[in-house]
């Protein structure tokens, strides 16, 4: 009897569940799910996780989406060397170069609907300066900011500086709504509550897309902001009528998986795929491969305070013993350019005659001259960042080539943290530090000064990891930087002179300038416009066209 | 006899003890590693001054017991800290990752238990036949193939070559957006049903098949072998033979009397294999880009994101202890001798 009841009960439950599901299906099939409005979606895979949602201090990977959600005053197109108006329609400076005036466009609104005003610009930049973190240093020349009317911002500088380039920086130059104070229930602009409010996944920008989902470990979802001024301006170059409705940045932490996903169509754009597969991918009709210059380069630093590398002749000998062409061909499958000086190709301030010839006889001669006719009897230690296969291959090629002029090299892969800490210790104890050091560099904003100051000025203890100290050089780059905005020709002359000094002193050698290779599905157009080397890793979705 | 309250309390006390122990050990191990996570906080191209400031902010300049004190004080008040690489609260990250892992594991374990036990019974009933050998080989293979290898092979066959099943992620983002699907519980199968969103339900299911299958093979093989061995033993017990001679239907004898006696050790072994499955889930999540705890922990480990590592390890420890507790309770419920 009990068995029969339980059987009946089971049957009843099954019938109920089936009926309910069926009913629900029929009900919803008629309403929510049927014929959804088709939105176009582009998924862009990022190799790294997002690092914060705070526009004032972000100095890392989050610019991938911040550059889309927030706007600076200007964008810079480094390949054509022009500034593209963003929130500022035009700007000018007085003859002294100490007063810069920016005129804002009147139809720009923040995502909360309030207008972008001069007051907001002042608020944003002043907050970034007061927090003093991340890339806040770019505003160092600014003495004060005035707002004579709602749409005019005047910057008074302490010393001459290229404020247009600074205002177009990908880091630390974003404008956000002063309403954040209210939203975050903060007491003032530097209240940590505002940072918490941002990092909870809120945005206060004015850009073409809004932040709708903030899951920094997995994905960031951005949705078209229909009130963006750019959509309505038919002449504005940096947008497309077929821009995706939704742009997703998906974190896929390794390049092999990214390649798999872009092949299968699970993502539309891969940030990085293994360079050795590029030729193969080019032949896939479903994909397109886009290449653009990038302002990232790889450099080899010498410990200029430790024998034998304290001798400039030895450094010069090594400079002539590195097979630059082979390194590019083998280490990065030809997808880079042999560098000529520390300023990368395509950027202003780059000159083509700073490459050392590969000449082993000359190298041996220089070594003999330096007093090492039989080579060097100490093994030099070269450190690189473990896990980076391109650095690894480069290190191996350098080792084998230096072996041919009698210099033994021990390659030591280290985590970046250890590698950098060891290199830093060289400022206090150069004898205990490495001899050779490999690292990448890319600029905060596009100026030769970023490369020359950070890596070669003795006051930049963080990244002058060749321990180079040359006061003449430092004076030259300082004046070059100040003249950038007002006398570009003179500034270029000085930058040339500075690089000539480096060429002769050889504190470091630029090995190659990276090429930015992105792989996308064939139906994604406009990538060429959407990628700008001044904003490394960013794909501007407003310029993409989704076909078909 | 109901389970004793004393037994439960004792087990709960054990659980807290274990989790706390794990917390302290993990804390100490991560902090003695020669890493400089303040670089992570300060970001690339940070100056020495900014890094020094980061060290102070994160209390990394203080002795380890003081750091532990800060952590415990926060932990007790429900503040698990902020991830040093994403600057978002660890608890948020974990709570969004946990349902993804749970859904996957539960799904995988359900497949493993049902299929494993069934295969075991079939093998025991058809002992020493072809069927038995095939099942035996299958279960040995299932239990011994490395998960990461199997995952890659499955991906290659079912996704890349045949194109039957998707290769990554929990759900097709495009479908999510076009149908307006929004997570409620974080268990997408349940959420999509609750919203009557059948396209998403099917899609979630399709995404789950490969990772769940890969993950289920180890416990499936294990439970099949255990079930077979136990059933073979039990089927030879005198009480089974007498039951059969009394004319009780064979089905009833096998599935009720024999299985009930055979299944307890199977459940215990499944509980133990759960730890292995969590490790397997980490691999599977990495390969299938499954946004769960495994992926979260792996990424935290790679970047020395201390608070995130701590959070993930605590969750896993908690999870593991709770599962063990549940398994023991089920065990005790099935086998009354254990309650004594």
Structural class category of chain A:
alpha+beta
Measured distance between first and last alpha carbons of chain B = 10 Å
How many beta-strand runs of chain A? 19
Tell me the major beta sheet of chain A: 11 strands, mixed
Number of helices of chain B: 14
Helix content of chain A: 25-40%
> N- to C-terminal separation of chain A?
64 Å
Q: Tell me the name of the CATH homologous superfamily of the domain at 95-307 in chain B.
A: MetI-like
Helical proportion of chain B, percent range: over 70%
Largest interface by residue count? A-B, 60 and 49 residues
Strand content of chain B: under 5%
Shape of chain B: globular
Radius of gyration of chain A: 27 Å
CATH architecture of the domain at 95-307 in chain B: Orthogonal Bundle
GO molecular function (chain A): peptide transmembrane transporter activity
Protein name (chain A): ABC transporter substrate-binding protein
GO biological process, one term (chain A): peptide transport
Domain Solute-binding protein family (chain A): 83-461
Q: If you had to describe this structure to a student in words, what would you say it looks like?
A:
The complex is a heterodimer of chains A (548) and B (340). Chain A has 548 residues and is of the alpha+beta class. Chain A folds into two domains: 43-286 and 522-546, D-Maltodextrin-Binding Protein, domain 2, CATH 3.40.190; 293-515, Dipeptide-binding Protein, domain 3 (Roll). Chain A is 33% helix and 21% strand. Chain A is built from 18 helices and 19 strands. Chain A has helices at residues 2-30, 63-69, 118-131, 163-167, 180-183, 192-199, 229-232, 255-264, 278-282, 312-319, 324-331, 360-369, 389-403, 416-425, 448-456, 471-483, 488-505, 527-530; strands at residues 41-46, 74-77, 82-85, 88-93, 99-104, 142-149, 152-157, 209-215, 219-224, 246-251, 269-270, 287-302, 336-338, 380-385, 409-414, 436-441, 508-521, 524-525, 545-546. In chain A, strand 14, helix 13 (389-403) and strand 15 form a beta-alpha-beta unit. The radius of gyration of chain A is 27 Å and the shape is globular. The N and C termini of chain A lie far apart (64 Å). With 340 residues, chain B is mostly helical. Chain B has a domain at 95-307: MetI-like (MetI-like fold). Chain B is globular, with a radius of gyration of 24 Å.
């Amino acid at each position: 009897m009990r068995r029969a009841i339980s059987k009946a009960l089971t049957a009843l439950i099954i019938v109920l569940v089936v009926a309910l599901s069926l009913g629900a299906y029929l009900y919803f099939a008629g309403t929510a799910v049927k014929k959804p409005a088709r939105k176009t979606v582009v998924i862009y895979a990022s190799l790294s996780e997002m690092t914060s949602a705070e526009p004032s201090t972000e100095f890392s990977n989050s610019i991938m989406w911040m550059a889309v959600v927030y706007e600076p005053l200007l964008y810079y197109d480094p390949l054509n060397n022009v500034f593209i108006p963003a929130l500022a329609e035009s700007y000018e400076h007085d003859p002294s170069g100490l007063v810069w005036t920016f005129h804002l466009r009147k139809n720009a609104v923040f995502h909360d609907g309030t207008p972008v005003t001069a007051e907001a610009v002042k608020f944003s930049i002043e907050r970034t300066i007061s927090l003093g973190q991340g890339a806040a240093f770019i505003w160092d020349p600014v003495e004060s900011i005035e707002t004579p009317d709602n749409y005019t911002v005047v910057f008074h500088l302490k010393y001459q500086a290229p404020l247009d380039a600074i205002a177009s920086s990908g880091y630390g130059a974003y404008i956000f709504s002063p309403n954040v104070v209210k939203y975050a229930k903060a007491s003032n602009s530097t209240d940590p509550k505002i940072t918490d409010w941002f990092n909870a996944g809120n945005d206060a920008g004015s850009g073409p897309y809004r932040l709708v989902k903030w899951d920094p470990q997995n994905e960031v979802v951005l949705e078209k902001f229909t009130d963006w001024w750019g959509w309505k301006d038919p002449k504005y170059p940096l947008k497309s009528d077929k821009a995706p409705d939704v742009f997703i940045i998906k974190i896929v932490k390794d390049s092999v998986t990214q390649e798999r996903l872009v092949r299968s169509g699970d993502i539309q754009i891969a940030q990085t795929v293994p360079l050795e597969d590029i030729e193969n991918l080019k032949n896939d009709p479903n994909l397109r491969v886009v290449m653009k210059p990038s302002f990232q380069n790889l450099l080899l630093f010498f410990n200029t305070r430790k024998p034998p590398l304290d001798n400039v002749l030895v450094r010069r000998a090594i400079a002539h013993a590195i097979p630059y062409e082979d390194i590019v061909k083998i280490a990065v499958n030809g997808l880079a350019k042999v560098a000529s000086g520390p300023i990368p190709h395509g950027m202003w301030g780059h000159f083509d005659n700073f490459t050392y010839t590969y000449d082993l006889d000359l190298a041996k001669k220089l070594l003999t001259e330096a007093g090492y006719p039989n080579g060097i009897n100490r093994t030099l230690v070269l450190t690189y960042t473990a896990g980076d296969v391109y650095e690894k291959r480069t290190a191996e090629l350098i080792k084998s080539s230096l072996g041919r002029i009698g210099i033994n090299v021990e390659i030591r892969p280290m985590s970046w943290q250890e590698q950098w800490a060891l290199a830093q210790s060289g400022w206090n104890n150069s004898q205990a530090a490495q001899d050779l050091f490999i690292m990448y560099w890319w600029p905060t904003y596009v100026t030769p000064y970023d490369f020359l100051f950070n890596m070669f000025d003795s006051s930049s203890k963080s990244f002058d990891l060749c321990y180079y100290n040359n006061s003449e050089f430092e004076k030259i780059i300082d004046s070059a930087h100040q003249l950038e905005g007002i006398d570009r020709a003179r500034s270029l002359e000085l930058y040339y002179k500075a690089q000539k000094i480096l060429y002769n002193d050889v504190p470091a050698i630029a090995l190659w300038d990276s090429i930015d290779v992105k792989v996308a599905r064939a139906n994604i157009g406009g990538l060429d416009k959407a990628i700008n080397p001044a904003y490394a890793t960013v794909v501007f979705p407003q310029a993409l066209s989704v076909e078909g | 006899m109901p389970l004793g309250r004393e037994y439960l309390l004792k087990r709960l006390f054990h659980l807290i003890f274990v989790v706390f122990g794990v917390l302290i050990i993990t804390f100490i191990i991560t902090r003695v590693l020669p890493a400089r996570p303040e670089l992570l906080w300060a970001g690339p191209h940070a100056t020495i001054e900014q890094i020094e400031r980061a060290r102070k902010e994160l209390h990394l300049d203080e002795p380890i017991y003081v750091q532990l004190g800060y952590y415990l004080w926060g932990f007790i008040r429900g503040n698990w800290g902020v991830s040093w690489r994403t600057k978002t609260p660890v608890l948020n990250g974990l709570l969004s990752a946990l349902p993804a892992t749970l859904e996957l594991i539960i799904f995988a374990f359900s497949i493993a238990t049902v299929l494993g036990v069934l295969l075991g019974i079939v093998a025991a009933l058809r002992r020493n036949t072809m069927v038995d050998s095939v099942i035996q080989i299958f279960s040995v293979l299932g239990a011994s193939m490395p998960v990461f290898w199997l995952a890659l092979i499955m991906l290659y066959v079912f996704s890349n070559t045949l194109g039957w099943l998707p290769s990554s992620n929990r759900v097709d983002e495009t479908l999510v957006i076009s149908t307006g699907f929004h997570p409620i519980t974080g268990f997408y199968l349940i959420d999509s049903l609750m919203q009557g969103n059948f396209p998403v339900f099917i899609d979630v299911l399709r995404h789950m098949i490969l990772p769940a299958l890969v993950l289920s093979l180890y416990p499936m093989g294990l439970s099949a072998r255990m079930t077979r061995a136990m059933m073979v033993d039990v089927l030879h017990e005198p009480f089974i033979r007498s039951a059969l001679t009394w004319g009780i239907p064979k089905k009833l004898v096998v599935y009720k009397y024999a299985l009930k006696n055979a299944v307890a050790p199977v459940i215990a072994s499944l509980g133990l294999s759960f730890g292995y499955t969590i490790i397997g889930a980490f691999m599977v999540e990495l390969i299938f880009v499954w946004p769960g705890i495994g992926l979260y922990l792996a990424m935290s480990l790679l970047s020395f994101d201390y608070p995130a590592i701590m959070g993930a390890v605590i969750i896993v420890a908690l999870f593991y202890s709770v599962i063990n507790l549940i398994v023991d309770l089920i065990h005790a419920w099935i086998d009354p001798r254990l309650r004594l």
